[in-house]
Structures are given as C-alpha cells and as structure tokens.
Amino acid sequence: MTAPKTIQKTGTTPAPAPSADLSGSFLGPVDLTGLDGLFSTEEKGLALKVRSLVDEVIRPNIAEWYDRAVFPTEIIPELGRLGVLGMHLHGYGCAGRSAVEYGLAAQELEAGDSGLRTFVSVQGSLAMSAIHKHGSEEQKNEWLPRMASGEAVGCFGLTEPTAGSDPAAMLTNARQDANGDWVLNGTKRWIGLANLAQVAVIWAQTGEHGDGRSIRGFVVPTGTPGFTATPIAQKLSMRASVQCEIHLDEVRLPASAMLPADSAIGLKGPFQCLNEARYGIIWGVMGAARDSFNAVLDYSASRTQFGTPLGGFQLTQAKLADMAVAINKGYLLAHQIGRAKDGALPGGVNPAMISTGKLDNCRVAIGIARDAREMLGGNGITLDYSPLRHANNLESVRTYEGTDEVHQLTIGRHLTGLGAFTRTEA
Prior knowledge:
The chain starts with 40 loop residues before the first helix and ends in a 10-residue tail after the last helix. It contains eleven helices and eleven strands. It is globular. The chain is 46% helix and 13% strand.
C-alpha cells in the first residue's frame, strides 16, 4: 500500500501524538488508577501495534479526509494485515483474539477517528459476525477469509428510513417463488460501507412465521441486479466514513442465500450482531475521549495567557482532573465487561451489561470531547485539533447501535422484569 501524503497544516501547531514509551502506562498521563496493570504484555503489545498504524497513517491525514468527506479505502488491506478485521472470530482466516484485545484495538482506532473504528466494527462485528454466527459452511468459506484479509468488504442492512430503534417494523420483504429463489424488495438507510461492499447481509420480512419470527437474514452479493447503494451526503458527523441508502428492487437470490441457522430466525439474529458492535463501542469511545484529553493537556502546557500557562490555572486543572477521573472509570467499566465477555467472570456477559457500557461511556466521551474543545478556545474549532471532530463523530456513535433511550429501556427491563418497548423489545 502506498501511504497517503502527509498533510502540511497551517496555523496552530497540533499536539503531538502520544508516545508509545512503555516506561509509564501505555495509556499515558490519563492513567490515574493503575489501568496499565490490568492488561497483559501481549494485550498491550497488540494495542501498540494498532497505535502505530494510527500514528503513521491516520493522524497525518485525518484532517484532510474529514474535511473532504473521504473514506480512505487504501487502509483496508493494511487493517487486514494487522489482523483487526473480524479479529474476535475464530477460524476461516480470522485472528481469534479475545474480547479485551478487540476492545483495546477499538479504542486505539477511535483515538484516530470514529469513522475508522466504525469500518472495523461494521466489517467484523456486524457483517462477518452475522455470517460466522448464522451462516452455512459454504457462506463462511466463501466470504470470511476474504473479509478478514480486507480483500472483500461487507455491510449489514437492518435499519430502514422508518425503522431505526424499531426494527420489527421493517418493510423490506423477501418472497420465495415457485423455483425456490428469494426475491427481495425494500430500502435500508444508514448502512455503513454499502457502496464499497462486495457482500451485504440484508434482513427482511419473509412471512414464514408469526409473532415477529418472520425476519430472516440473506447474504447478498452487491453485484446482484437490483441492488444499489447511494452514499448519504452533506453529513456533519462521521465525515471520514461512508453511510448509504440501499435500494432493493426485485433482487433475486438462490435459496442458499438465506442464513440457515435457527439462531437467525427473528430479531435475535441481528441483535446478537448488534451486541458485538455495541461492545466495541464501549471501548472505542474511550479512545476518542483519551485523545481529546491528551490534546488539551498538551495545549494547556504550551499555551500561555496572562503570563501563565493555561495548565497553571485552577479552573483548567479542575477540568482536566474531572476528565481524567471520568476516563479512568470508563476504562474500568470496559475492562470489566470485556473480561466478562471472555468468560473470566461468573455468569459471563448479558445485554444489560453491554447497554450499561454503551450508554455511559458514550455520554462520558462526548462530554469530554466538548469540554476539551471549549478549553482550546477558538483554535478548537479547527481541524488542527481533534476534540471537535471527535465530538461531532460521537453524535453518531451515541445514536447508532441503539440510542440512549433504547439502552435505558434495556437496563430498565433487566431491573424490573418489565418490557417498556412499545412494539418489540430490543
């Protein structure tokens, strides 16, 4: 891969990237509580490999990609070689890493940009997980090795223009004709990577079952006639990423295109994949928060007002302290859920744990990014500094894979035993 050109920035000098020096915590000065000691040498080593890619390729170019609203497809093979595509899956060319290792990779990627972490999440936690969890051996062997290497890109078509938090209300349908083929019609919206993908996992109503069990997943090569994906333009968030609207017009598929596993019947199939993606977000947003903190910490040491560095003012120190404490709590929450997901805690992981992490860490991260922007003053509205870019991106991250309200109701159901969703429980 030819590395993208380095951007020559003008105006204020950006804060340097955090050092990979392991003489202190690998998480840098924000580590107030000995977080470094929670992770093995191997786990930290993986995180630093991802950080090197971020420092060498993403940081020098992200301002231009974001400004031009360009997703850098040239990094896809590099992510494949790094082994982070479907890294938590086993077999079929996937790395088979632990949940904690996946989380550490996610937070390093999102320290670079949420859009780049989102690519890894859509590819691995959604599209690849759907095929890995619910697919046939033929489907797995056909797609997973190529997706793990970055040779093939996948997308995950669940959300629709009128069915976001209520996926059971989807209108996309699949009918089976006399020859046994499935024919898909409908529209999906906010589908990451769809215009770049070679394969789409599309969820549709089939009418096979009653009581919400008629939703099934289909593996759809995007070159199939009737499949079109149009990027959504003029976004104020996730500009170095791509989201699309998919139109399905009499898309004809063989019977073998359906995900065959019983686990894929109804909404439990896509929800299992969504929980994989939500888990990655718990860690990822902490990377954006940490990067925002590092930017303003460095700025407070170099920027002087009234003859004193900003870091010497009580208000600055109070804000930095609050940020650091919040970030430490966010990492501790992510670590606890990650160890549970890896089976190190009794009972494992459950949806309420995932919702707890996604809900609170997103809240924390977006607050830190906004506060950091404020502390940068007028310089904070430029792309020379990362916090406002992170804050804008986190508006999307906080919304997708379940809004705050969806996660509050998931936690509420866990606490009370009563579902308060109006149509279907998510």
